[in-house]
Amino acid sequence: MKYETVIGLEVHIEMATESKIFCSCSAKFGAEQNEHVCPACCGMPGMLPVVNRHVVDLGMNAGMMLNCHINRTTTFDKKSYYYPDLPSSYQTTQWFAPVAVNGTVTIETANGKKDIRIKQIHMEEDAGKLVHDDWTDTTLVDFNRTSVPLIEIVSQPDLSSAEEVVAYLERLRSLLRFAKVSECRMEQGSMRCDVNLSVRPEGSDKLGVRTEMKNMNSLSAIVRAIEYETARHIDALENGTEELVQETRRWDDIKGKSFAMRNKETAGDYRYFPDPNVMPVVIDDAWYDSIKASLPEFPEVKRARYIDAYGLSEYDADMLTQSRALCDCFEAAYAECKNAKEAANWLISDCMNILNKSQKTADQLTLDGKALGELILLVLDGKVGRGNAKKILIAMFDEKLDPAKYAEEQGFIVSNDTGAIEAIVKTVVAADPKSVADYKNGKEKALMALFGKCMRELKGNCDPQVLQKLLKDTIDSL
Amino acid sequence: MQKETLNRLQKLNQLRLTDAEETNVLSFFAAREEEMNILNSIDTETVERMVHVMPIETVVREDKVIKSFTREQLQAGAPETTDGYWQVPRLVE
Ligand SMILES: [Zn+2]
Known about the structure:
The complex is a heterodimer. Chain A is of the alpha+beta class.
C-alpha cells in the first residue's frame, strides 16, 4: 500500500524587541545569568504585567505578511503548568482571541507552488533556562529569557514531506526577516519548531495517529526526524511492529531516533483562562493602518523590480534580496548615485567582504545607503580612486561620516594637476630604464610596473586613464 | 467532581490534600458545578463575548529598557542561590 505523510508545524519565533513582553527588562540574548530580571518576570507575588506595544506591532506585522485576518480585539490568557523555568507557574499566552488567524503562505518546491494554510499566530512569553549542575546535583535557574516575546505560528496539517517543511520554514524566515519581526536564527534559538506528524493510506481523508516532536532547531535535524518518524509510522501500520499512540516525542539527532517523553499533557491540563491582569488590546484603525503602511514588498516582488526597472542581473537581484538591510541600503544608494550596477557591486562584494570579516550577516548591515551613493558618485566622477574609495568604505562601517569631507581630510582627492603628475612620471621613468627598455621591446607587463610605481607615488589620487596616457607619452618621447 | 479529577489536579498543581481536605474540596466543587450548570443552560448565542470585567483596554507601554532591581536584591529571599543562579532540587526528566 502507498502512504502519505501529513505534517503540521508550530513555529516559535523570538521577536526583535528591545524589552520583554510584559516588563521593561532587556530582551537581548547573551547577558550574565539573571541580569535581565525584575519582580515581574521572576514571578514575585503582586507583580502586574503591562504589554509592550511593539510586540503587538510585530504580531500584526507577522499576521499581515502571512495574509492573516487580524483580530482587532486581542486578549491574553493564562496557560498553567508547574515547572521551575516558569516562575509564576503559568505562561501568559493567547488562546481565545489570538492576534492573527486564517492566513496562507505560498511555498515552492520541485513539484511547483502550494498554499499552506495558517491557523493562527499568537503572542506569548518565553520560559527561563535550566542548567543541570553535576557538582551539587541540583538544577540552576536563569530567568533572563523568561518573558522574552515570542510569536507562535500554527499551520494547518497541509505539509506532506520534509522538502515542503524546509521550503515552508525558509519562506517564513525570509518574510519575517523582511518585515523585521525577527532575525529567525535557528542556531541561536530565535526560531524553533514543533513537528506534528501522522501517516495514512494515500487518498484517505481520515487522519492517522499523530505524534509531536518538540523544540527542533536545525533544518537538517528536522529533515532527519521527519524521515525517521514517517518510516516508523509506516512500519507500525504495515507490519504491526508497535502500536502508535498520540504522544510527544523527543528527537535525538546523534542517535538518529525519536523517543517517547513521559509527561503527557492535554489542552485541558493547561487550564487556559483569561488573564485578568492583562487588559484586552484593541487595535484601532490608525494603529492598523500604520502597520499596514509599513509592510515591505515581498522579496520576490523586489527581485523582479530590480531586474525589470534597474536592469540588474538575476544573480545581483538574488544576492540583494537575501536581506532587507541590503535592499534598503541598495535603494538609498541608488537614489543618490542613479547607477544600479555600481550600487549592487559595492554592496555584494565590498560591503559583504567587510561584514564577513567581522563575522556579521547581511541583516546586520547598518551602513548609510545615501552615504554609499555619495561615495560611488565620487568614484564615477573621477574625484576619488577606487582603491582609496574602498578605504573610505571601511571607515564608513566604523563611524557615520561624509565621504567627500573624509576624502579631503585624508588626502584622497584626485589631483587634476597634470603638471604634478607629469613630474612624478618623469622621475619614475628616469629611475627605471630597465622597465622602459622592456616595454619598448614589447613587454606590456613592464608598463604596468611603472604605472604601479607612479600610482604609489601619487597615493592613488590620480585618474588611471590620465596617468596611463601621460606615462605612454613620456616613454614614447624618449 | 470525581475523585480522579481531583487527583489529576493535585498532581498538576503539586499539591497533596489530606482526606478531610479532599472531602471538603469535593463538596465545594460540587456546589460550584451546580452553579455552572445553571449558567450553561442560559442561551448566550446572540450575546457578544465579554472580554474583561473592567472597562479598561489597551494598556500598553513603549518598547524601552528600564533597569529595576539588582540581581542581589531579587535573590535576597531565595532559599538557595549559586553564582547568580536560583538553585533548586534536581529535576528528574
Ligand atoms: Zn522583567
